[in-house]
């Protein structure tokens, strides 16, 4: 894991807040299958961590919550970045030996190797490691990414180390969102928030800061004009973007407001909403 993509020069995703139908059902999955530690728990909320102090995922069970609907905007997946290939190897062995029954996907993206799961409510999750950035191929500001078959046998052979939960160095590597259209989405994330487009694929844009392969993925694979989900539906509640300092965040807030984007203040966060209804909390590192 290379820290320059998640340091004081970058703006990156910090925490993801997810709505679920049942904490009783979700907690065993997030603890026993994914390997999170519990940081905080109330009757309707659980805060999860890898290092024992930094929130990465918060699960909420709102009153009147409804199951996930198909073909809407919202969460495609959030992605947990492991520090090393050996960690992903241990995780894959663990998943294959576990009682996980929600379907397992896998892919080699050139810049990374990834496994894909869904929680009991259908919220998408990626667990991945990055290949060294020195081997990423860039051309005219675009990084070469694709989806090809993962060498699962080679990954499993990487280590015999037993999975004991998420490594303490695990961070939120990126988030990938379903959106209603790419034109307004591009204006919001690139012209508004200042992200760079680093890869374009059919129906999708991948954006980042500090020349990462992507901090935020955006797609219309649920269809252009996909419905914005109801507020009481399973899925993404909000995610945070971490800014290096208050000055950088204030500059961005002023820039957003000049473009007519509403910015609200709640505690330490500035809150905005993208054109597809995805809520973002702007925070300071």
From TrEMBL:
Native organism taxonomy: Bacteria, Bacillati, Bacillota, Bacilli, Bacillales
Keyword presence, Glycosyltransferase: no
Segments forming domain VOC: 12-130, 171-285
Pfam families assigned to the protein according to its UniProt record, in alphabetical order: Glyoxalase
GO molecular function: dioxygenase activity; lactoylglutathione lyase activity; metal ion binding
Entry keyword annotation includes Oxidoreductase: yes
SUPFAM superfamilies tied to this protein: Glyoxalase/Bleomycin resistance protein/Dihydroxybiphenyl dioxygenase
Keywords of this entry: Dioxygenase, Metal-binding, Oxidoreductase
PANTHER family membership: CATECHOL-2,3-DIOXYGENASE (PTHR43279:SF1)
CDD domains in UniProt: VOC_BsCatE_like_C
The protein, known as: Catechol 2,3-dioxygenase
